[in-house]
Design goal:
The chain has 323 residues and is an all-beta fold. Helices cover 0% and strands 21% of the residues. The chain contains no helices and twelve strands. The N and C termini lie far apart (92 Å).
Length: 323
């Protein structure tokens, strides 16, 4: 009998070119080295088979439980295996690679009549495989191998639909970009925040008036565990000795940080709303300073009790008392 597991393990490496699964099953299209050519006139991105993505055992992958979406993007380098062995039509992605992305994606070699070998670096482009194929919009794919009814397969009625206009915006900017990001070309794919940065080299943390002066973070690789999303949200869990901290940052600049001493810093770039449907108790062992540059309104539906064991000082140009 032939069955999965008995026939052997046929593995592959490749590059993600599409993650916009119409069935929302977490699948991706992978251009696989050795199986697929970079020439889209022979096999365009929509012609690639859908690959399932194996999730970690920390996620049930059932009924919406756990982490049900992966983090792969167009341009991610991945490894996997064929579930159907030598048929090679049912690929499974099992992991992704960190590398050093370059502005070129392949090197062509030619040898002349004298035996001299020449190498040419081919720059990245959306029109050839093993690259992020996303164009500016869905309509931009019309007339290309990735659009509907391409010349190499005239009767294909589907094509790519995800354009940059519908993709996440890059790091707080107003537009999306193709991957890899220029910021990481020629260096490690490991997040810059995990690679010995400080506030001067990666100024996502802007100190504002009223915020306490902070010690430069300077995390040490590999102790800062960073998760950054495409649009620029960041979560840092930093275990750098004597710099241990937790930092949550929104792409617009709002952030929460707990520093090495347990100090809690909160910066909100716009409005804040707090709603407590039960009781609220605040205990402060030190002093409290509240600075308000606008008006202040306090409404109490019940009784108000104010107890001070020291003097009470009030300064105002005019005091109104309404019974």
């Amino acid at each position: 009998m032939m069955y999965q597991g008995k026939t052997g393990f046929n593995w592959f490496t490749g590059v993600i070119e599409d993650r916009n699964d119409p069935k929302h099953l977490n699948r991706v299209r992978v251009r696989i080295h050795g199986s697929h050519t970079f020439n889209k006139q022979k096999i365009a991105t929509p012609d690639l088979p859908w690959s399932e993505v194996m999730m970690p055992v920390t996620s049930p992958s059932l009924s919406g439980l756990g982490t049900t979406t992966h983090g792969l993007v167009e341009g991610s380098s991945v490894m996997g295996f064929y579930r159907d062995y030598l048929e090679m039509q049912d690929p499974i992605v099992i992991g992704s690679f960190v590398g050093e992305p370059q502005s070129f994606y392949r090197v062509d070699e030619k040898e002349d009549d004298n035996g001299t070998r020449n190498f040419t670096k081919i720059e990245r482009t959306t029109t050839e495989g093993y690259n992020d194929p996303r164009l500016s919009s869905e309509s931009s794919y019309k007339g290309t191998p990735d659009g509907i009814n391409p010349t190499h397969i005239p009767n294909r009625t589907y094509g790519l639909t995800l354009g940059l206009d519908k993709s996440p915006k890059n790091q707080g900017s107003d537009k999306a970009i193709n991957y890899p990001r220029e910021l990481y070309l020629g260096s490690s794919d490991v997040n810059l925040l995990a690679r010995n940065y400080d506030d001067k080299t990666y100024p996502i943390i802007e100190v504002v008036k009223g915020e306490p002066k902070r010690d430069y973070v300077k995390p040490i690789y590999p102790f800062n565990h960073v998760h950054e999303t495409e649009s620029g949200h960041v979560l840092e869990l930093d275990d750098t000795p004597d710099k241990e901290r937790i930092h949550l940052y929104h792409r617009k600049g709002t952030r929460v940080e707990i520093d090495k001493d347990g100090n809690y810093i909160e910066k909100i770039v716009k409005d804040k709303y707090s709603v407590v449907l039960g009781n609220d108790t605040v205990t402060i062992s030190g002093n409290v300073t509240v600075n308000i540059t606008g008006d202040a309104d306090i409404t109490v539906d019940g009784a108000t009790n104010l107890i001070s064991k020291g003097d009470i000082s009030m300064v105002a140009p005019k005091i109104k008392l309404n019974a």
